[in-house]
Amino acid sequence: MLKKINYTKTLFYLLLLTAIGFGIYFYSSVFGHLIAGFVLAYILDPLVNAVERLRLPRWLAVLSVYIIIIGAIALLVVLFAPSLYEQVAQVVSVLQEDSSGAANPLVELPLLKDLHLFLMELDARVPVLDLANEYVKLMDILVENLVALPKIIMKNYSAIIGAVSYVGTIPLICFYLLLDKARFRKALFSLIPNRYFEPIVILSDKIDETVGKYMRAMLFEVLAVALMTFIALRILGVPYAILIGVIAGFANIIPYFGPFIGGCVAVLSSLIAGQPPIMIFWVILAMILVQQVDNNLVYPVLVGKTIDMHPLVVFFTVLAGGWFGSLIWMLISVPLLYITYTMIKETYLNFKMFKLL
Amino acid sequence: MSLKDILHKKLSSLKKSERYVRLREFWIFEGLSNYELSFVDELFYSRKYSAGEILYEKGFPVELVYLIVSGEVQLQETGQSFGTNQVLDLSSLFWTETRPYTAVAVVDTEVMAISQTDFDELIKKEKSLGVKVLKNICTRLTHIIHDKPC
Questions:
Q1: Which residues from chain B sit within 8 angstroms of residue A190, using beta carbons?
Q2: Cβ distance B112 to B44 under 8 Å?
């Protein structure tokens, strides 16, 4: 016998599907904001919980955390923003001057100049060599590439403006997510069928434990490394200490290679400023020291165990991130890979135990 | 609203203050203040099982403890059944083991599910709540040992 088609039911689900489709299309432009708000709420949640423990109502706890953070940001801005801006502007102007000038500025730097002079002397003795000219050419290529850096930033201008518009909406989304956390969680979990309920509760706890901890630790590490680098370089008198600190902090997100990038920038800055070559040694020593403190003190306390990822995997992931998108993708590619990997692993193990897989 | 009315209503249709009254009907939450119950209220999940549906199976990992709001649940292996206001597999609130039995809803059943992880965190946060729950469990155990009805 043919099964009778329930037209009302079919029509209802068809309409529902259409509505969901339109909904996704309609809200797609703010989806990124929602995710960013969610991530921020996720990071701030333990802080709000801690404040709530003082027997404050949740809304007041969220508000207090907001006030604390805004205060901290304001303090940082007042303290560091003017000099940070100055430093960025200086670097940009130096590099732009370089491109227009006839003489290569790099060749004029102390250590590199010595090398140039040595090569010229060598050329004078062995006329066929012409090493000095080749050297200048090489330096020219280097400068060209360095000059391209601010241009890359300029090209991404619209993206930067987009990021600024985020700043307005994300705290608002984050506020409500933090405030009604329990309600949102309950509503979301009520959609799960009974068969999958307990596995998913366990899974969400596991993911919360690993991913949440990792994300918060990463944020704190960026701050810690930036601050330590800044202090170390300021003591050594390296110029652009704040800028380098910020770069080193963010670069530190990338395992293995990040600290190296930070160190390179610091050494380069010291070189460009015309500081004596012995400073390179001190700068490298300072950066190694910062890394040692980070690896042996900050990281073990915050995360407990290091991410076990092969350097080659990290390298390819960062490279792929660069091809996929901008600088930001290069930074978040490794954490994203780690989070995805953890989620898949936990889901597999958990569903296996519940005989769902 | 009287207690009788509250007991007969569905969990989702109760107001916050009524839910606190309802929660206190479970012996493990006896004597908890509204402030303490507000945290419990935030973390329980309301679940509905139709007759014959399995709540959990023997050998599965343990995370949730079930407080029966209405209906009846039976343990398949022992035939022991649990009804309104009873707590199913209390040990799962504190210990991580695998389920010793399979639990099946005999009739349409409404339960409150509380996650062990959430409850652990809550006890760490609200120590007085933990102490009260501990006292309730001890009282219960005393009654069972002395075979007094409760």
A1: 45-46
A2: yes
Collect all residues of chain B within an 8 Å Cβ-Cβ radius of residue A355: 57, 60
In this complex, do B125 and A53 lie within 8 Å of one another by their Cβ atoms? yes
Instruction: Answer yes or no: are the C-beta atoms of B65 and B21 closer than 8 Å.
Output: no
The 3-state DSSP class for residue B98 equals: strand
Contact A253, A335 (CB under 8 A): yes
Q: Quick check: B55 and B65 in contact, CB under 8 A?
A: no
CB of B99 within 8 A of CB of B58? yes
In this structure, is residue A261 part of a structural domain? yes
Count of beta carbons in the 10 Å neighbourhood of residue B72: 17
Beta carbons of A201 and B56 less than 8 Å apart? no
pLDDT in tens, A297-322: 877 777 666 667 788 888 888 889 88
Where does residue B111 rank: exposed (0-12), middle (13-18), buried (19+ CB within 10 A)?
A: buried
Residues of A in contact with B118 (CB under 8 A): 205
Strands B109-115 and B81-82: unpaired
C-beta of residue B81 within 8 angstroms of C-beta of residue B106: yes
Which chain A residues contact residue B111 at CB under 8 A?
none
Residues of chain B with pLDDT under 70: 1, 96, 148-150
Average pLDDT over residues A198-222: 85
Nearest to A287 by CA among A236, A333, A239: A236
Answer whether residue A216 is part of any domain: yes
- Residue in B with minimal Cα distance to A182: B42
Q: Containing domain of residue A224, as a range?
A: 193-357
- Domains of chain A: total: 1
pLDDT in tens, A229-287: 999 988 988 878 888 888 899 888 888 888 888 888 888 888 877 778 888 889 899 99
Q: Is residue A325 part of a domain?
A: yes
Closest C-alpha among B48, B89, B93, B40 to residue B70: B48
Nearest to A201 among B55, B57, B115 (CB): B115
CA distance A58 to chain B (A): 11
Give a yes or no: residue A306 inside a domain: yes
Query: What's the topology of domain B3-145?
Result: Jelly Rolls (2.60.120)
Q: What is the pLDDT of residues A56-103, one digit of tens each?
A: 888 999 999 999 999 988 888 888 777 777 777 777 776 666 554 445
CB B60 to CB A189 under 8 A? Answer: no
Residue where the block lists tokens 């769902």? A356
Q: With contact defined as beta carbons under 8 Å apart, do B22 and B84 qualify?
A: no
pTM for the model = 0.73
For A78, half-sphere exposure in the C-beta direction (CA atoms, 13 angstrom radius) is 6
Three-state secondary structure call for residue A4: coil
Q: Is B115 on the interface with A (CB under 8 A)?
A: yes
Q: Given the structure tokens 């701030």, which residue do they identify?
A: A44
Interface test with B, best of A45, A179, A202, A206 (most B CBs within 10 A): A202
